[in-house]
Amino acid sequence: MATNFKRPDGRKVDELREFEAKVGVIPNADGSAMYKSGETIAIAAVYGPKKMHPQHSQDPEKGTLRCTYNMNSFSVSERIRPGPSRRSTEISKITEWALEPALMLDRFPNMVVDVHINIIQADAGTRCAGINAAAMALAHAGIPMRDMVSSVSVGKLDKTIVVDLSKEEEDYEEGEGPTDIPISMTHSGNITHFQLDGKIESKQLMEAVELARKACEQIYEVQKKALKDSINMEEEE
Amino acid sequence: MGGEEIEITPEVTAERIRKYLEEGKRFDGRNTNEFREVIIERNISKKAEGSVRVKLGKTEVLVGIKMDVSAPYPDSPNKGNLMVTAEFLPLSSSRIELGPPKFDSIEVGRIIDRGIRESKFIELEKLCIKEGEKVWTVFIDIYTINDDGNLLDAAGIGAVAALKLAKVPKYDEEKAKVLYGEYNGDLPLKKMNPFAITIHKIGSNLILDPTREEEDVSETRMTVGSSEGIIYSLQKGNSGYFSVEEIEKSFEIIEKSWKELFKKVEAQLK
Prior knowledge:
A: 237 residues, five-stranded mixed sheet, 4 helices, B: 270 residues
């Protein structure tokens, strides 16, 4: 991808923002994690598996994954009204769909696993940061998993495909403008979450998917390390 | 999910759907990438600025456009507003219960909204009356009448068709009053057809336009809003996954299907 395109923060097209993962950030939770990408910070807590109430919501065949995504009112420049919105309702569902294929929920009939995601500070890519934190928190809680899930937002700015958009890039106005493409995948490369807003041809979209795959590989390594570190720390205590 | 009085496709039927698909067959004799008959009925409400009834086989939705004058959003002071809502009426299926909107209907509204908005199909910059003060809001309202699967694509076809039929009401600036029923020309639109087309995965098969039974068996789905090969919005729905190869193949199927859909819709709007 030879191009003269310069990213506002000087990153290379395939360069992630500085990112950081930490496991065990909420003592009360059965599992918890923080994922930070640039200025975006997400925390996630897992409670469960526990009995599903009310009883008629129970699924006798497998456990239910229930995610809630919530943005703090002060996580963005213009205060957002606290409480659920159409957007947050959708992201909660998207998060469940992104994570569920990696979980062995058939081991927990009639039970529910609650995942609460909270965005403390937002600078684009909050749903992806939330999914990354949630996947680690689920592993930390000891929920049996087939695979890890990693998430990243790739994008097209005018004609150039770049990885991990910042807010400034999301608002990019030149040429064809921004196309935002959040993607989540398992470590084995299956796509469990895929969204797009903008304008792109299918051929270039496949390039974006490939770029996301490489980025998810890097994120996976950091998630794995954070999980390993948390075990080592507990052993030391 | 769970409720005993809700009719869900029984496992025997599900098994047969999967088995048929392995041989590339469907209960109603369609190919895997074939839509049911699309019927569009125009102007189903005289009070709407534009409206249609869309049938995909036995699936039926109504889409109406209403317009009103209001303040613009602070970040787009010289552009009209767009608002899309979908309501799943209890009359359209025994599965739908009264009460606050469930996720399904919220999702349909949001997916259709994004396809229309991102493609810039409506020329919202031409819907400014006074910058920073008064702009037109375009409401696209979707109602389900009969759910036999794929309400989403029916709603998307309906939204594009209803917008194409819509006219802008006259506005009396002095009295600050919309003169409903008197019109000032067509709603300004770009020459495009941003249909939302959803592909479903059942086993190793990719299918379009599922019936209610097929939709129940679907493991995962992906909706693509596109026009002439350019993709403007996309959303994977449901748990389950697509491999990279399946995604690539889906784009080919959807692009081909868009062309067929375009011809059918165009012919009925003339």
